[in-house]
Amino acid sequence: MDTQAADHESMPGSVARGPREAFHRDGITRIEGALDATLLSRCRAVFDHSLGHPGTMTKRIYPGTVHEHWADNINPAVREQCRELVRNPVFGEIVSEVLDSPRVWYSAEEIFYKKGSKVGRTPWHQDTSYGPYGGEQWCNLWISFESLARQNALEVVRGSHKGPQYDGSAYDDPDDPAKPLHGGAWLPLPDIEREREADPASWDVVGYPSEPGDLIVFHPHSLHGGAPLDAACPVRHTLVLRFFGEDAIYRPLPQTSDAIWEGGTGVRDDYRGLEPGQRLSCGGFLRIR
Ligand SMILES: O=C(O)CCC(=O)C(=O)O
Hints:
- By secondary structure, the chain is an alpha+beta fold.
- It has one domain: Sandwich (Jelly Rolls), CATH 2.60.120.
- Helix content is 18%, strand content 23%.
- The longest helix has 16 residues, at 37-52.
């Protein structure tokens, strides 16, 4: 069942109980007006710099189709700019409260740029099938620079952040969004959108409309996707900032896969020297609180 999420009160730099509880229960929440105009424009500057200076894991997704869009991930060109940005105490306070972790660290950024009213959904996936993210205290701050209605929102399967690990989407065929990334031991990724088309109640999905300055906070292990465009919303610029708390550990991806995003130049720097199962707080990540 699609759920229009309820509104909650929140103050910049703190997280009201409603959004915090929603994050723990559902794996996603919205913190309204968390970023003031100055902070929002600093986020936008990161986005623009990344778009203009592609990194080592840049992807033109679905090239040559109406769904073509741009994603970049852990771009060395914005590493220092991001580390400067996330030192703003708003990020540390919010992440610490949402994760219930007194100490929190910044992991990395990602951008999504979609343009054209026919550009469809980002396939359903868990970020934990692309990155070595173990433990529970993780969140992504999803920062979009346009007003987004519910039908253009990022969506998660409610509670899936507490569920099993699925294989990732190979993310190279818009007609087969559940095509396996690794194809190994993890559960095959269900074709959630096809199942929802057949039966809209088949998956319990939650998403929030948002305005510039709002944060959509979601758990990277949740099954998430969406944010398609349409005539009313023909362009989207989104910056994603990833954070973790005390219990986060290094959980390597399957050895058998050649589709490993963490393999790009410079990308592994923060993980250097870590053993599987070791706390990420022992790595080279920036502690922000
Ligand atoms: O913005 C999108 O379309 C997808 C976002 C996403 O998958 C992520 O932030 O991990």
